C-alpha cells in the first residue's frame, strides 16, 4: 500500500516547464553547435545549388466577334477589331493550347533548348553560356529526336578539340574516349554522329565548354517545369506567364518565343475557314463562267438567226410590274441556287468547313452554319493534343453529325420555301404578261434568254465580290494576343531563396537539440534531483552536487575534495550533511556508519571518504574501512597497501593495518588488502566484530565503505555491526522504480537506521537539476588467488 502511494506521488512529480528551461539553458552549447552545423549545411546548399531567375510577362487574349452577316461591310468592321473569323475565345482553353506539346516542342526547336552549354562541368548559374556569352554552337547531323549526348569542347588557337563523347542510343550508352580535332564549320565523324561546331564569335578566347544534349521529350518536360501560367482575373482575358531559368536572358527569350509560336499557330488555324471558303468560291466561279458564256453565245445565235434588232418596251406599266416580279424571281432564284450549291457541297463532304456569307436570307441557317464551323474548329484544335477516341472529340463529332442533318433539313425547307415564292412571283408575272398580248413571240423568247443572262451575270459578280472579301480576310488576319507587359524581372534569384533557407537552417538548428532534450527529459526514468525523493519515508540527510565534468567524474575515481578552509559549493554541501548526520547520530553514541547503495558507481566511496574528511576537519578522530575487497576504490587513494582488512580477517596478520591519510592526522584508512577468493566468507570471521568494537573505542566515528547492497551479500553482513546506514542514491543512475524498495528496506529495518543521501546532482544556472548518463563501471572478479598473491609478494 505504501509503495502504491509513493508511486502515485511520483506520477504527480512530473517534468515542469521550468525544469525543461533549465535543461535548455544548461545545454546551450548543443544549441550553438547545432545551429552552426545547420548553417554550414545551408551555406553549402546555397553555394552548390544553381541560382534560378524569374521573368514574368502578361498577354491579353483578344475577344472575338461572332457575327452572322457575311457582307464586305461587316468584314471591314471586324478588321477594326483585328478579328475577322472565329468565335468568342475561351481563355482557359487558350492557356491549355499555349502549354500544348506542339507549342513547347516548336519553342525548343527554334531556341535549341535541347542543347545546354556550360563553362563548368557541374551545371551552375555562373557556368551557363547563352546569348552573347556563348562562343560556339554544336550541330549533330542526323541525330535522333530522343538521343542523349554529352561532350567536351576545348577551343585553343582557333582549333576545336572534341573529347569525352557520351551518347545513348536505343537504351545503350556509348562512350567515345577518342580526341577529335576539327576546324569551325567542318564536320567530324564520331560515335554520336557527324558533329559540326559553328563559331558565334570571330575570335573566341581559349576555353573549355561542356555540352549536354537532351532528347526532345526530356527538353519539353524540362521547359514545362520552368513555366507557369495563370489568369490575372476571372473576369479578364489576361494571362500571366512566368519562366524560371539559370539565365535571365534565356528566360525572357523563352517567353517571347512561346507567344510568337502560339500566335503563328492561331493564325494558321483561323485561316483554315477562309481557305475552305476560297476553294468553294473559286469552284463556283468556274462553273458560272462556263454557264454565262453559253448564255451569251445563245443570245448572239438567236438574234443572228432571226435577224432581230433591239425592241423597246411598249407598255411601261405592264413591263414595270413584270420587271418587279422578274427581279423578285431572280433574287429568289439566286438564293435557291446558293442553297442547292451549299447542299451539294455538304452532300459531297460532311467533315469540312461550310462556306459563309453567301447571302442566304435565312438567319437560322446562317446561325447553324456558323455554329457548325465553330465546332469543327474547336474539334480540330482539341485533336492537336488529344486523339479521336477522346470523349470530348466523340461528343463533338456526334453534335456535328446532328447539326449536319439539321442544316440539310433546313436547306431542304428553304429550297421548298424559295420554290413556292418563285411560283407565286411567276404567277404574278404571268398575270401582267398576259396584258402584253401584242408582243411578238420572238421578243418574248429573246427576253427569256436575256433574263438567264442577267441571272448568271449577277451571280458571277456576287461571287467575285465574295472572293475579294475572302482574300482581304486572309491578308488582314491579326494575332490573337496582345502583349500587355514584356518579360521583366528582378536581379535577385528566386531559387534558392537565401533568407528562407537560412531561416529553415536556424529553425532546424534549434529544433534538433530542443526535441532531443525534450524527449530525453520526458522519457528519463532515473532519479533527477531531490524533488524525486520527496515521497520517501526514509529520512533524507542531504545532497552532494556533481563534482567536475561528467567525463572527468566518470573516470577520475575517488577524490578528497573536502578542505579545511575551502568555501566551495561541494565543501559547503558536505558541511551541511555533516551537521545533519551529527544530529541523527544521537550525540555521538552511534559511531559505526555504513555507506552503501543499490548501483555500482553511485559514489558511495567518494561520499564515505569526503564525509569522513569533513568530520576530521572538525576535529573528530575518524577511520574509514574499505569493505569493498573486490574493487578497493578507497585503498587506491593510499596506493593500495599490500596488507589490509582481508589479511586481518584471514588471520594472515595479527593486527589490522591502519594508515593515517597524508596531511590529515585525524583521518585514518583501513585498506581492503589483497583480493581474496572468498570475500563474503571472510566477513563471517570472528575477528570482524572485535575489530569494529576496538575501532569504536579508539575513534569518534567509524565509516564502513561497503559494496552495493543488491549485488553482493557483503553489505547485509556488515550491517549487523553498523549503528547508522547512509544509503547513497546517484542522480542520473538509479531508476525511480527502485525508490519504493529503499522505503521497503527502511520499513523492514533490513539496514540499521537508514538515511538517504543524494549524490551527483547537476547544478544548472544556480539550481540543482538533473544529471544524465552517469555510469561507473563496477567489475567484480578474482585477479589471482589469495595465497598466490602472498607467495608473489614474499618472493
Task: Give an account of the 3D structure.
With about 800 residues, the protein is of the alpha+beta class. About 50% of the residues lie in helices and about 15% in strands. Strands 15, 16, 17, 18, 19, 20, 21, 22 and 23 form a 9-stranded mixed sheet that branches. Strands 2, 3, 5, 6, 7, 8 and 11 form a 7-stranded antiparallel sheet that branches. Strands 12-13-1-14 form a 4-stranded antiparallel sheet. Helix 3 packs antiparallel against helix 13, helix 9 runs antiparallel to helix 11 and helix 15 crosses helix 16.
Query: What composes the largest sheet?
Result: 9 strands, mixed
Q: Let me know the number of strands.
A: 23
Overall pLDDT = 79
> C-alpha Rg, in Å?
55 Å
Distance between the termini: 61 Å
Low-confidence stretches: 5-13, 66-89, 311-315, 551-556, 764-795
Number of helical stretches of at least 4 residues: 22
Helix content: 40-55%
- The dominant shape is elongated
What portion of residues belong to β-strands?
15-25%
Secondary-structure class: alpha+beta
Amino acid at each position: 500500500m505504501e509503495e502504491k502511494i509513493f508511486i502515485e506521488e511520483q506520477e504527480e512529480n512530473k517534468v515542469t516547464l521550468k525544469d525543461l528551461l533549465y535543461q535548455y539553458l544548461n545545454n546551450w552549447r548543443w544549441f550553438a553547435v547545432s545551429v552552426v552545423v545547420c548553417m554550414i549545411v545551408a551555406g553549402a546548399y546555397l553555394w552548390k545549388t544553381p541560382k534560378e531567375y524569374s521573368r514574368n510577362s502578361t498577354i491579353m487574349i483578344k475577344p472575338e466577334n461572332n457575327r452572322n452577316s457575311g457582307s464586305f461591310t461587316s468584314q471591314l468592321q471586324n478588321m477594326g477589331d483585328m478579328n475577322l473569323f472565329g468565335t468568342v475565345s475561351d481563355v482557359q482553353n487558350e492557356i491549355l493550347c499555349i502549354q500544348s506539346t506542339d507549342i513547347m516542342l516548336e519553342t525548343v526547336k527554334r531556341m535549341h533548348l535541347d542543347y545546354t552549354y556550360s563553362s563548368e562541368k557541374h551545371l551552375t548559374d555562373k557556368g551557363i553560356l547563352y546569348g552573347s556569352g556563348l562562343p560556339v554552337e554544336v550541330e549533330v547531323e542526323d541525330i535522333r529526336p530522343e538521343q542523349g549526348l554529352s561532350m567536351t569542347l576545348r577551343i585553343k588557337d582557333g582549333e576545336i578539340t572534341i573529347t569525352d563523347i557520351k551518347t545513348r542510343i536505343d537504351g545503350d550508352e556509348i562512350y567515345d574516349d577518342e580526341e577529335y580535332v576539327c576546324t569551325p564549320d567542318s564536320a567530324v565523324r564520331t560515335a554520336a554522329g557527324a558533329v559540326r561546331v559553328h563559331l558565334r564569335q570571330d575570335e573566341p578566347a581559349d576555353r573549355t565548354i561542356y555540352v549536354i544534349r537532351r532528347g526532345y521529350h526530356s527538353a519539353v518536360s524540362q521547359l514545362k517545369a520552368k513555366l507557369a501560367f495563370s489568369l490575372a482575373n476571372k473576369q479578364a482575358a489576361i494571362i500571366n506567364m512566368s519562366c524560371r531559368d539559370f539565365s535571365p536572358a534565356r528566360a525572357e527569350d523563352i517567353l517571347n518565343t512561346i507567344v510568337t509560336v502560339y500566335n503563328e499557330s492561331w493564325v494558321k488555324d483561323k485561316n483554315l475557314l477562309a481557305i475552305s471558303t476560297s476553294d468553294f468560291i473559286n469552284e463556283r466561279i468556274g462553273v458560272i463562267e462556263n454557264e454565262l458564256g453559253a448564255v451569251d453565245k445563245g443570245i448572239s445565235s438567236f438574234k443572228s438567226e432571226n435577224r432581230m434588232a433591239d425592241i423597246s418596251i411598249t407598255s411601261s406599266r405592264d413591263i414595270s410590274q413584270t420587271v418587279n416580279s422578274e427581279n423578285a424571281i431572280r433574287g429568289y432564284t439566286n438564293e435557291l441556287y446558293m442553297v442547292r450549291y451549299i447542299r451539294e457541297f455538304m452532300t459531297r463532304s460532311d467533315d469540312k468547313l461550310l462556306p459563309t456569307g453567301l447571302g442566304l436570307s435565312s438567319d437560322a441557317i446562317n446561325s447553324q452554319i456558323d455554329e457548325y464551323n465553330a465546332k469543327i474548329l474547336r474539334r480540330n484544335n482539341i485533336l492537336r493534343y488529344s486523339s479521336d477516341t477522346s470523349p470530348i472529340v466523340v461528343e463533338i463529332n456526334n453534335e456535328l453529325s446532328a447539326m449536319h442533318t439539321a442544316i440539310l433539313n433546313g436547306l431542304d425547307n428553304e429550297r421548298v420555301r424559295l420554290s413556292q415564292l418563285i411560283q407565286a412571283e411567276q404567277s404574278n408575272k404571268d398575270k401582267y404578261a398576259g396584258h402584253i398580248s401584242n408582243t411578238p413571240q420572238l421578243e418574248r423568247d429573246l427576253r427569256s434568254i436575256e433574263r438567264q443572262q442577267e441571272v448568271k451575270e449577277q451571280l458571277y459578280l456576287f461571287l467575285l465580290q465574295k472572293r475579294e472579301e475572302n482574300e482581304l480576310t486572309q491578308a488582314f488576319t491579326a494575332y490573337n494576343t496582345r502583349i500587355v507587359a514584356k518579360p521583366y524581372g528582378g536581379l535577385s534569384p528566386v531559387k534558392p531563396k537565401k533568407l528562407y533557407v537560412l531561416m529553415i537552417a536556424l529553425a532546424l538548428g534549434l529544433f534538433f537539440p530542443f526535441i532531443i532534450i525534450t524527449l530525453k527529459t520526458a522519457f528519463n526514468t532515473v532519479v533527477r534531483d531531490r524533488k524525486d525523493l520527496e515521497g520517501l519515508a526514509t529520512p533524507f540527510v542531504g545532497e552532494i552536487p556533481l563534482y567536475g565534468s561528467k567525463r572527468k567524474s566518470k573516470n577520475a575515481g575517488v577524490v578528497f575534495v573536502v578542505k579545511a578552509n575551502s568555501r566551495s559549493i561541494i565543501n559547503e554541501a558536505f558541511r551541511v550533511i555533516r551537521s545533519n548526520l551529527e544530529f541523527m547520530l544521537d550525540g555521538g553514541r552511534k559511531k559505526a556508519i555504513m555507506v552503501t547503495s543499490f548501483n555500482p558507481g553511485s559514489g558511495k566511496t567518494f561520499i564515505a571518504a569526503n564525509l569522513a574528511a569533513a568530520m576530521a576537519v572538525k576535529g573528530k578522530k575518524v577511520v574509514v574501512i574499505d569493505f569493498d575487497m573486490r574493487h578497493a576504490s578507497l585503498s587506491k587513494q593510499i596506493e593500495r597497501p599490500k596488507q589490509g582488512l582481508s589479511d586481518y580477517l584471514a588471520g594472515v596478520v595479527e593486527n589490522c593495518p591502519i594508515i593515517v591519510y597524508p596531511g590529515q592526522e585525524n583521518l585514518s584508512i583501513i585498506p581492503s588488502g589483497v583480493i581474496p577468493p572468498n570475500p563474503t566468507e571472510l566477513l563471517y570471521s570472528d575477528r570482524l566484530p572485535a575489530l569494529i568494537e576496538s575501532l569504536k573505542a579508539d575513534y569518534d566515528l567509524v565509516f564502513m565503505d561497503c559494496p552495493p547492497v543488491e549485488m553482493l551479500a557483503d553489505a547485509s553482513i556488515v550491517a549487523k555491526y553498523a549503528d547508522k546506514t547512509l544509503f547513497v542514491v546517484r542522480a542520473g543512475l538509479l531508476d525511480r522504480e527502485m525508490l519504493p524498495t529503499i522505503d521497503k528496506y527502511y520499513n523492514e529495518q533490513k539496514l540499521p537506521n537508514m538515511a538517504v543521501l543524494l549524490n551527483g546532482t547537476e547544478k544548472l544556472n544556480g539550481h540543482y537539476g538533473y544529471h544524465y548518463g552517469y555510469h561507473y563501471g563496477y567489475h567484480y572478479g578474482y585477479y589471482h588467488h589469495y595465497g598466490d598473491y602472498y607467495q608473489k609478494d614474499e618472493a
